[in-house]
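Hey, I was hoping to borrow your eyes for a little while. No rush at all, and the record is pasted right below.
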Amino acid sequence: MNRLYDDPDALGQKLAEILDPRPEVLEAYLFGSVARGRAQAHSDIDVAVFVNPEVTPSGGFGYRAELTTELMAGLGTNEVDVVVLNQAPPLLYHRVLRDGIRVLSRNLKETTVREARAVSRYCDFLPQLAKIDGVLYGTSKREVPAS
């Protein structure tokens, strides 16, 4: 297993170094089992990025594929999975914020506003998740905050 898997902080620094020259990446997060310090032999490196919506990134195969390829080369592993938060569903975005490590922020004030909006969207989605859980499991397993 790659030594970076053993040290989430060192991996976060390496990710920041790789992503810093890409001005369109406004925020980046390391999340998943590697960020939690629970990487296994089969674990991949989960990276989430929020991209400036005013910039159209180049790349014939798509931005996500281009960025994934660059991260694979920079980290020395093919086990990299990239999530573009601009397109992520509320549940995934929340999981990144809850369990992840922010490794890059171009503007902390703007990052904080985006993160707060993402948490708000997640909270708005909780009643639907509770209904889905109720249908699937016969009861709600998620707590829905009182309005």
